[in-house]
Amino acid sequence: MKTFIQFLEEAAGKGLTIFDIDDTLFHTNAKVFVKKDDKVIHTLTNQEFNTYKLKDGEEFDFGEFRSAKLFQQTSTPIGKMIKRAKAIIKRAIPKGSKVIMATARSDFDDRDTFLDTFRAHGIDIDKIYVERAGNLGLGSPAKNKKFVFQKYLKTGLYKRARLFDDSKQNLNSFMSLSKKYPGVSFDAYLVKDTGNISNFKI
Protein backbone atom coordinates (compact mmCIF):
# COMPACT_ATOMS: atom_id res chain seq x y z
CA MET A 1 0.00 0.00 0.00
CA LYS A 2 1.34 3.42 -0.98
CA THR A 3 2.01 6.03 1.66
CA PHE A 4 0.65 9.56 1.50
CA ILE A 5 4.18 10.82 0.70
CA GLN A 6 4.41 8.43 -2.26
CA PHE A 7 1.07 9.69 -3.58
CA LEU A 8 2.32 13.27 -3.31
CA GLU A 9 5.55 12.42 -5.12
CA GLU A 10 3.68 10.69 -7.96
CA ALA A 11 1.31 13.65 -8.27
CA ALA A 12 4.30 15.98 -8.54
CA GLY A 13 5.64 13.90 -11.44
CA LYS A 14 9.12 12.79 -12.32
CA GLY A 15 11.96 15.28 -12.32
CA LEU A 16 14.87 15.84 -14.69
CA THR A 17 18.11 17.19 -13.25
CA ILE A 18 20.93 18.24 -15.58
CA PHE A 19 24.49 19.02 -14.55
CA ASP A 20 27.10 20.70 -16.69
CA ILE A 21 30.62 19.37 -16.05
CA ASP A 22 33.34 21.93 -16.83
CA ASP A 23 33.47 24.70 -14.21
CA THR A 24 30.27 23.33 -12.69
CA LEU A 25 31.36 20.03 -11.13
CA PHE A 26 35.07 20.35 -11.84
CA HIS A 27 37.46 23.18 -12.58
CA THR A 28 39.19 21.97 -15.72
CA ASN A 29 42.28 23.07 -17.61
CA ALA A 30 41.59 21.81 -21.12
CA LYS A 31 41.80 24.49 -23.80
CA VAL A 32 40.15 24.79 -27.20
CA PHE A 33 42.39 26.13 -29.92
CA VAL A 34 41.20 28.30 -32.76
CA LYS A 35 43.10 27.62 -35.96
CA LYS A 36 43.35 29.40 -39.27
CA ASP A 37 45.48 28.08 -42.12
CA ASP A 38 46.67 25.30 -39.78
CA LYS A 39 48.06 27.83 -37.29
CA VAL A 40 46.77 28.42 -33.76
CA ILE A 41 45.56 32.01 -33.54
CA HIS A 42 43.58 31.85 -30.25
CA THR A 43 43.56 29.68 -27.14
CA LEU A 44 40.21 29.52 -25.37
CA THR A 45 39.22 28.45 -21.87
CA ASN A 46 35.98 26.53 -21.43
CA GLN A 47 34.09 29.72 -20.60
CA GLU A 48 35.58 31.62 -23.54
CA PHE A 49 34.66 28.76 -25.86
CA ASN A 50 31.01 29.05 -24.76
CA THR A 51 30.74 32.48 -26.39
CA TYR A 52 33.35 32.43 -29.18
CA LYS A 53 32.03 32.64 -32.75
CA LEU A 54 34.22 31.37 -35.53
CA LYS A 55 35.20 33.86 -38.21
CA ASP A 56 35.76 33.05 -41.87
CA GLY A 57 38.50 30.48 -42.32
CA GLU A 58 38.69 29.58 -38.63
CA GLU A 59 38.12 26.17 -37.07
CA PHE A 60 38.20 24.68 -33.60
CA ASP A 61 40.82 22.18 -32.49
CA PHE A 62 39.33 20.07 -29.65
CA GLY A 63 42.37 17.86 -29.06
CA GLU A 64 42.69 18.74 -25.38
CA PHE A 65 38.93 18.64 -24.85
CA ARG A 66 38.88 15.01 -26.03
CA SER A 67 41.72 13.87 -23.78
CA ALA A 68 40.32 11.73 -20.96
CA LYS A 69 43.77 11.49 -19.38
CA LEU A 70 44.11 15.28 -19.23
CA PHE A 71 40.60 15.52 -17.77
CA GLN A 72 41.44 12.96 -15.08
CA GLN A 73 44.83 14.42 -14.19
CA THR A 74 43.96 18.12 -14.11
CA SER A 75 40.30 18.35 -13.06
CA THR A 76 39.78 19.83 -9.61
CA PRO A 77 36.45 18.93 -7.98
CA ILE A 78 34.22 21.78 -6.89
CA GLY A 79 33.37 20.47 -3.44
CA LYS A 80 29.96 22.02 -2.90
CA MET A 81 28.71 20.91 -6.31
CA ILE A 82 30.10 17.40 -6.01
CA LYS A 83 28.30 17.05 -2.68
CA ARG A 84 25.10 18.43 -4.20
CA ALA A 85 25.28 16.09 -7.19
CA LYS A 86 25.84 13.03 -5.00
CA ALA A 87 22.86 13.94 -2.80
CA ILE A 88 20.55 14.51 -5.78
CA ILE A 89 21.60 11.25 -7.45
CA LYS A 90 21.02 9.31 -4.23
CA ARG A 91 17.62 10.90 -3.64
CA ALA A 92 16.16 11.31 -7.14
CA ILE A 93 17.01 8.16 -9.08
CA PRO A 94 15.32 5.66 -6.69
CA LYS A 95 12.11 7.70 -7.10
CA GLY A 96 12.17 7.30 -10.88
CA SER A 97 13.50 10.75 -11.65
CA LYS A 98 16.33 11.26 -14.15
CA VAL A 99 19.78 12.74 -13.63
CA ILE A 100 22.04 13.42 -16.61
CA MET A 101 25.17 15.37 -17.37
CA ALA A 102 25.37 17.56 -20.45
CA THR A 103 28.81 18.67 -21.54
CA ALA A 104 29.78 20.95 -24.41
CA ARG A 105 32.52 18.43 -25.21
CA SER A 106 32.28 15.71 -27.83
CA ASP A 107 33.37 12.10 -27.25
CA PHE A 108 36.45 11.49 -25.14
CA ASP A 109 39.30 9.35 -26.44
CA ASP A 110 39.01 6.95 -23.47
CA ARG A 111 35.54 6.45 -22.05
CA ASP A 112 36.62 4.43 -19.00
CA THR A 113 39.31 6.89 -17.90
CA PHE A 114 36.79 9.72 -18.21
CA LEU A 115 34.17 7.91 -16.13
CA ASP A 116 36.73 6.80 -13.54
CA THR A 117 37.29 10.46 -12.70
CA PHE A 118 33.72 10.67 -11.38
CA ARG A 119 33.95 7.35 -9.55
CA ALA A 120 37.10 8.58 -7.79
CA HIS A 121 35.05 11.40 -6.25
CA GLY A 122 32.14 9.20 -5.18
CA ILE A 123 29.74 10.07 -7.99
CA ASP A 124 27.72 7.04 -9.08
CA ILE A 125 28.30 7.78 -12.75
CA ASP A 126 27.02 4.35 -13.82
CA LYS A 127 23.48 5.52 -13.01
CA ILE A 128 23.85 8.65 -15.14
CA TYR A 129 24.07 9.24 -18.87
CA VAL A 130 26.61 11.79 -20.07
CA GLU A 131 25.35 13.72 -23.09
CA ARG A 132 28.26 14.89 -25.22
CA ALA A 133 26.54 17.85 -26.84
CA GLY A 134 29.66 18.73 -28.81
CA ASN A 135 28.92 15.79 -31.11
CA LEU A 136 25.92 17.64 -32.53
CA GLY A 137 27.77 20.48 -34.25
CA LEU A 138 24.82 22.89 -34.32
CA GLY A 139 26.94 26.04 -34.17
CA SER A 140 27.35 26.86 -30.48
CA PRO A 141 27.47 25.06 -27.12
CA ALA A 142 24.15 26.67 -26.13
CA LYS A 143 22.40 25.42 -29.30
CA ASN A 144 23.86 21.95 -28.87
CA LYS A 145 22.73 21.76 -25.27
CA LYS A 146 19.25 23.09 -26.12
CA PHE A 147 18.83 20.16 -28.49
CA VAL A 148 19.83 17.78 -25.68
CA PHE A 149 17.39 19.40 -23.23
CA GLN A 150 14.54 19.05 -25.72
CA LYS A 151 15.33 15.38 -26.33
CA TYR A 152 14.31 14.68 -22.75
CA LEU A 153 11.53 17.23 -22.36
CA LYS A 154 9.61 16.17 -25.46
CA THR A 155 9.17 12.65 -24.02
CA GLY A 156 6.52 14.14 -21.72
CA LEU A 157 7.88 12.12 -18.81
CA TYR A 158 8.99 15.05 -16.67
CA LYS A 159 6.98 17.61 -14.75
CA ARG A 160 10.03 19.33 -13.27
CA ALA A 161 13.37 20.20 -14.87
CA ARG A 162 16.41 21.89 -13.40
CA LEU A 163 19.83 22.78 -14.74
CA PHE A 164 23.08 23.55 -12.93
CA ASP A 165 25.54 25.35 -15.22
CA ASP A 166 28.19 28.05 -15.04
CA SER A 167 27.23 29.46 -18.47
CA LYS A 168 24.49 32.08 -18.70
CA GLN A 169 24.09 31.27 -22.41
CA ASN A 170 23.31 27.63 -21.59
CA LEU A 171 20.92 28.64 -18.82
CA ASN A 172 19.17 31.02 -21.20
CA SER A 173 18.74 28.22 -23.74
CA PHE A 174 17.26 26.00 -21.06
CA MET A 175 14.85 28.61 -19.67
CA SER A 176 13.71 29.61 -23.18
CA LEU A 177 12.08 26.19 -23.45
CA SER A 178 9.63 26.96 -20.64
CA LYS A 179 7.16 28.49 -23.12
CA LYS A 180 7.27 25.40 -25.32
CA TYR A 181 6.69 23.09 -22.36
CA PRO A 182 4.19 24.94 -20.13
CA GLY A 183 3.41 21.77 -18.20
CA VAL A 184 6.95 21.56 -16.90
CA SER A 185 8.30 23.57 -13.97
CA PHE A 186 11.75 24.98 -14.86
CA ASP A 187 14.51 25.91 -12.42
CA ALA A 188 17.94 27.16 -13.49
CA TYR A 189 20.95 27.66 -11.24
CA LEU A 190 24.05 29.66 -12.07
CA VAL A 191 27.09 27.98 -10.54
CA LYS A 192 29.83 30.24 -9.20
CA ASP A 193 33.57 29.44 -9.00
CA THR A 194 33.15 28.57 -5.32
CA GLY A 195 30.34 26.10 -5.98
CA ASN A 196 27.72 28.45 -4.60
CA ILE A 197 24.60 28.75 -6.72
CA SER A 198 22.01 31.44 -7.46
CA ASN A 199 18.62 31.25 -9.12
CA PHE A 200 18.84 32.27 -12.75
CA LYS A 201 16.04 34.17 -14.46
CA ILE A 202 15.79 35.36 -18.05
Please render the helix and strand layout as text.
Blueprint: H1 4-12, E1 14-19, E2 26-27, E3 32-36, E4 39-44, H2 46-51, E5 58-61, H3 68-74, E6 76-77, H4 79-92, E7 98-103, H5 111-119, E8 129-132, H6 141-153, E9 158-165, H7 168-175, E10 185-191, E11 197-199
Helix pairs in contact: 3-5, 6-7
Structure, explained:
With 202 residues, this protein is an alpha/beta fold. The chain has a single domain, classed as HAD superfamily/HAD-like (Rossmann fold). The chain contains 7 helices and 11 strands. The strands form 3 sheets. The protein has a 6-stranded mixed sheet with strand order 8-7-1-9-10-11, with helices on both faces. It has a 3-stranded antiparallel sheet with strand order 4-3-5. The chain has a two-stranded antiparallel sheet with strand order 2-6. The N terminus is likely disordered.
